[in-house]
Design a protein that fits this description.
The protein is of the alpha/beta class. Among the domains are: 141 residues, Rossmann fold (3-Layer(aba) Sandwich), CATH 3.40.50.1980; 104 residues, 3-Layer(aba) Sandwich (Rossmann fold); 44 residues, no CATH class. The strands form 3 sheets. A 6-stranded mixed beta sheet has the order 1-12-11-10-13-14, with helices on both faces. A 4-stranded parallel beta sheet has the order 3-2-4-5, with helices on both faces. Strands 7-6-8-9 form a 4-stranded parallel beta sheet, sandwiched between helices. Helix 1 packs across helix 8, helix 5 crosses helix 7 and helix 12 runs antiparallel to helix 13.
Length: 522
């Protein structure tokens, strides 16, 4: 087995089995690194904690909720505004964050009174919000504060409010994935089944594992609406607290991110008999197959096919244009969990890029299995990497771009490797047919940005060519303007004020293809 021990990790030999290079003809039994284990002391992991997985990933996207962290203020600050979970109530959950701000004295004397005071003050400060989620942190868990009792006491005193308690301290699992599991199970145990919804269609589903990053959910919901399907609730992007209490009445659970939300789907199947159907909103072929599967469940295949035909005709020319220019570019695919395998094969097939490395910080063995199986030979797979290993991997592989989170992405920029934010996107949404073209456009713009060329110049000694910033324009000089991409005209209704940057770019580079517009914030 081709285990790979990074030079920077030679002092931690246990790390060797956490990195593998996929060799010729090897099966997953030969090329699978260890995964989802406790971080090895001294390796300086970049993982998130279980509290982060519960609050930041699953809980925060709910729109009409006060999200209260019972712990030090740093915990809630670290999980605030780092993803673009937009919502239709003026992004309430992105504008405000709440913490009980535990201090040393609370560790000694307890903080239940402080918690109750904070809950009441928060409801009074925002009288239109009647729902709250309270998240446990390491500090409040270690001293044993009974958050459930405090929440129950407040609900008895204020019967118009409802409070959900999530006991998921940071140490509650090897990574943030432990928090995903805890909040999934807590939600179905405490809240599902408490509200009866209004059914408006013969076809009703829950959209699970979708967090509305830059409008992803809106794109997918539009497809469902065009098929005549009622989306009862979205777990949890732009989701309503009370809608999510009615999940038990759906006929089907459609699951997008299996790593973060398969747990509640499995429990809904056991307790209410609701089937689970895994789908994929990324890429033309996976998305088309997913829409067909959903339609087949309800017996409305012709509606799905009509959407697929219309959207493919509209957007395929644009995708082909980018594929021709991205072919052969090397990519390090370093996201969180499920995007590891959602993207690994399809970006190669539909965009022409070569995936030279995959990694995951909190994914399980199943995520790594699916990701590696979809990679070409020679790909480097890493579990729970740290900053030094990431730098060493980039120096070895020489990628043209990496898809990752903001922290490792900023490190990559220091060695002049462009990155796209795989967690919060650059100019999303990236789901859907038009979203996939946006993704291709972002990859293209990142790789061919004149700034990348200028970054390699040493202004203390290198001569700066006057034409360096116009290489992209030169590259496109042979493009026949009659072949200019026109697919983005269909988004003219979203034009103008929503994408000032694209308008400026078109003025600077008049030969650029027309830009795919960004959807407005809802």
């Amino acid at each position: 087995m081709p285990y790979h021990l990074f030079k920077c990790s030679e002092c931690i030999p246990e790390r060797k089995k956490h990195a593998v290079i996929k060799g010729p003809g090897e099966t997953l039994a030969d090329a699978l690194p260890l995964g989802y284990l406790n971080t090895i002391p001294g390796s300086i992991s970049e993982r998130g904690c279980a509290y982060c997985g519960a609050k930041h990933v699953i809980g925060t996207p709910m729109r009409d909720v006060i999200h209260m962290s019972h712990g030090p203020v740093g915990c809630t600050y670290d999980t605030w505004q780092t993803k673009r979970y937009i919502s239709e109530n003026d992004n309430f959950q992105l504008k405000y964050t709440y913490a009980t701000d535990m201090k040393e004295k609370h560790i000694v004397f307890g903080a239940e009174k402080v918690l109750k005071q904070n809950i009441i003050e928060a409801f009074k400060a925002f009288p239109n919000i009647k729902r709250m989620t309270i998240y446990q942190t390491c500090a409040s868990a270690l001293i044993g504060d009974d958050m459930d009792a405090v929440a129950q006491e407040v609900m008895e005193e204020m019967p118009e409010v409802d409070i959900f308690v999530c006991n998921s301290p940071g140490f509650g699992g090897p990574s943030q994935s432990g928090g995903h599991h805890k909040i999934n199970i807590a939600w179905i145990n405490q809240k599902v089944g408490n509200v009866e919804p209004k059914i408006t269609s013969d076809y009703v589903l829950n959209y699970v594992g979708e967090y509305n990053i830059q409008g992803d959910q809106e794109v997918m919901q539009d497809y469902f609406r065009r098929m005549g399907i009622q989306v009862l609730s979205t777990f949890t992007g732009n989701g309503s607290y009370d809608d999510l209490r009615s999940m038990h009445r759906a006929q089907l659970n459609v699951l997008e991110c299996a790593r973060s939300a398969e747990y509640i789907c499995n429990e809904l199947r056991v307790r209410y008999g609701t089937p689970r159907l895994d789908i994929d909103g990324f890429g033309f072929e996976p998305l088309s197959a997913s829409l067909r599967k959903v339609a087949m469940f309800f017996g409305i295949e012709e509606r799905a096919q009509a959407i697929i035909d219309e959207e493919t005709a509209k957007w395929k020319p644009a995708l082909d244009w980018y594929k021709e220019r991205l072919k052969g570019k090397k990519v390090c695919l370093w996201p969180g969990g499920s995007k590891l395998w959602h993207w690994a094969n399809v970006i190669h097939e539909e965009m022409g890029v070569e995936v030279v490395s995959v990694y995951t910080k909190f994914g399980h063995q199943g995520d790594m299995e699916k990701g590696i199986s979809r990679c070409e030979e020679g790909a480097l797979a890493i579990d729970d990497p740290n900053e030094l290993e990431g730098l060493e991997a980039m120096e070895m592989l020489q990628p043209d771009i990496i898809f990752t989170g903001k922290r490792p992405g900023e490190v990559a920029k220091k060695i002049r490797v462009p990155y796209l934010n795989a967690h919060a996107y650059h100019n999303g949404p990236w789901k859907g047919f038009e979203g996939w073209v946006r993704f291709a456009r972002d990859i293209y713009n990142a790789i061919y940005s004149p700034m990348n060329k200028l970054a390699f110049l040493d202004i203390s000694k290198d001569e700066i060519p006057a034409d360096k910033g116009f290489e992209t324009q030169k590259m496109l000089s042979d493009v026949n303007l009659s072949e200019e991409i026109t697919a983005s005209e269909t988004l003219r209704e979203y034009d103008g004020k929503y994408d000032i940057i694209a308008d400026l770019r078109k003025k600077t580079y008049p030969e650029f293809p027309r830009e795919v517009k960004q959807l407005p914030a809802v």
